[in-house]
Design a protein that fits this description.
The chain has helices at 42-47, 97-106, 129-136, 175-184, 190-200, 236-244, and strands at residues 5-9, 14-18, 25-28, 32-38, 62-68, 74-84, 87-93, 114-117, 122-128, 147-150, 155-163, 166-174, 250-257, 266-269, 276-287, 293-304, 312-314, 321-324. With 338 residues, the protein is of the alpha+beta class.
């Protein structure tokens, strides 16, 4: 599938972004895993562990959530899906899943909740474009974070935020149904989907960034990942203090470059080259016009917001130059409520 390109001007050079409106199809999201939580107390248990209001979640909703340490640092990020009463699916990074599942399981105690790795039973597939919309039919929801069953395949569908005006959906369902779905639609490269995830501005915690960020550092309250009225959960006091006392001076922004970028790499500011100005949360190669990985890269980078007016470099003050891109939502800066 060929893509056209549009020009994005940066201080470094001209970087060609693909025109993703031409993309259609499906891709197996092998980099994601799914934790299943079942039982009469599953909702109340998760409500007490995550930054999101789980007890109030409907089956027609999907919600972002942070799973934090007692210090308010994110151990994992979840897309929480509720396919039926007393059942939840927590979609997360596949490599982060084992440690997150183990830690969550430590707190179940007497709660009537069963936690398990659902990899044997469930698969996650990414869908985008007009072909996917047609395949989904009535399940092709219009509003971000809506959820609905897809009866023909036996799966659940979550509407993801658009990226560059292209609709995207997350399908979760039986492994055999996932294989049939992938055969029914044109194939999309996983690297292209991962770049779109970066461009969406929604951070996924990876192994290199476990315990690195308070939720607000990666804009989680801006994208609906923190509920400030829900009550206690691990790290809640730190998260609330960061929100209401203006103690947080870091935010996440899109940066682009022409050298490979990886999660966990440090970023340096020209204004203060002696110490890191931030850390890469997620990164991916921009697709070329044929949809394959190219030689330009995009990253979601947590930065000291005071450094926004200066230049950035990857890995060291003399490292490859990075250029600031446009976030898909407004990121407030200031000394209060930050």
């Amino acid at each position: 599938m060929e893509l056209t390109t549009v020009m994005i001007m940066t201080p470094m050079q001209d970087i060609q972004f693909p025109d993703v409106k031409a993309l259609n199809g499906a891709v197996a999201l092998s980099h994601l895993g799914i934790i299943s939580a079942e039982g009469a107390d599953a909702a109340s248990f998760l409500h007490g562990q995550l930054s999101q209001d789980v007890t109030g979640q409907l089956t027609s909703q999907a919600r972002l959530a942070a799973f934090c340490s007692a210090k308010g640092r994110m151990l994992a990020s979840f897309v929480v899906v509720k396919p039926q009463t007393d059942t939840f699916w927590l979609v997360t990074d596949a490599q982060v899943l084992p440690a997150a599942l183990k830690r969550l399981s430590m707190f179940v105690m007497r709660a009537k909740a069963r936690l398990s790795d659902a990899a044997v039973a469930l698969s996650a597939v990414g869908l985008m474009g007009s072909t996917a919309r047609e395949w989904l039919g009535d399940a092709a929801l219009a509003e971000p974070w809506q959820a609905n069953p897809h009866a023909p395949s036996g799966g659940q569908v979550v509407r993801l935020p658009d990226v560059l005006e292209v609709p995207r959906w997350l399908w979760i369902g039986p492994v055999d149904a996932a294989q049939a779905l992938l055969q029914a639609l044109p194939a999309l490269p996983l690297t292209t989907w991962q770049w779109l995830d970066v461009m969406s501005g929604v951070v996924r915690i990876e192994p290199a960034t476990v315990e690195q960020f308070v939720p607000q550092m990666v804009n989680y309250e801006l994208v609906g990942g923190v509920h400030f009225q829900k009550g206690c959960y691990p790290g809640q006091e730190v998260v609330a203090r960061s929100q209401y006392r203006g103690t947080l001076k870091r935010r996440t922004f899109l940066l682009h470059g022409t050298e490979p970028i990886q999660a966990g790499q440090e970023v340096f500011s020209a204004a203060d080259p002696g110490q890191p100005a931030g850390m890469v949360a997620n990164a991916a190669a921009m697709p070329t016009p044929d949809g394959q990985p190219g030689t330009a890269f995009s990253a979601l980078v947590e930065l000291k917001w005071q450094a926004l007016d200066t230049g950035w470099h990857l890995g060291s003050a003399e490292g490859p130059a990075l250029a600031l891109g446009a976030m898909p939502y407004e990121v407030p800066l200031g000394t209060s409520n930050d």
